[in-house]
Amino acid sequence: MARIGYARCSSLDQSLDIQIERLKVEGCQPIRSEKVSGASREGRTELAAILDFIREGDELVVVRADRLGRDTRDVLNIVHELDQRGAYLTVLDPHVSTRGESGRIVLTVLGMVSQMERRFILERQREGIQAAKAKGLYKGGTRRVDREKVMAMKAEGYGPAAIAKALGCSRMQVYRIIDSEAQKQNI
User: Domain Resolvase/invertase-type recombinase catalytic: where (predicted)?
Assistant: First the structure.
């Protein structure tokens, strides 16, 4: 029976060190980590690998429920997948385990709170942007990747992986820029 740790943060400039250290202290081996949004399961290859290979009696350990997912349904779907394999989930803060029914109830409530918290953050962000726009202060976010360079490299025959490597960004950003430019030309 293995204790498998999973650490996740949403952006490349955030650190996973605290989560990983906490999982090590808890005796997790192996520990899988990734820097990707928790808004959906898309692109979360490390989590997918864990769910593919977890065995009966194994335990998936995360520091907080929102590291597993921001959507209640997604967290509960992961718990269901673990159940199907005879595995368990343990959340360290607050300490909750799916080994018992009361843990499942608490986990459902935690998932709902995480989802509600995410909605509040987005709402406050929208309100702040609207207030800044009304004052003429909002100029939008700064672009991190030079769109023109992406399109020029694509025109030269470079693939998304090569473009991403050359510009120091993710392939997903390159795909988004290419898709966005293609949509502009179709309009």
Answer: 2-136
Same-domain pairing of 25 and 85: yes
Cα-to-chain-centroid distance, residue 31:
16
Q: Give the domain extent around 162.
A: 147-186
Q: What is the pLDDT of residues 114-151, one digit of tens each?
A: 778 878 988 998 999 999 889 988 877 777 788 899 99
pLDDT at 29 over 90: yes
* Total number of domains in the chain: 2
Q: What's the pLDDT tens digit per position in 149-166?
A: 999 999 999 999 999 899
Peptide bond into 160 cis (omega under 30): no
Asked if the structure places residue 63 within a domain, the reply is yes
Sheet holding 88-91, edge to edge: 31-35, 3-9, 59-62, 88-91, 96-97
Q: Rounded to two decimals, what is the model's pTM?
A: 0.64
Spatial CB neighbours of 85, under 8 Å, sequence gap ≥ 6: 54, 55, 56, 58
Catalytic one among 10, 37, 97, 170?
10
10 catalytically annotated: yes
Do 14 and 72 sit in the same domain of this protein?
yes
Separation of alpha carbons 182 and 134, rounded Å: 32
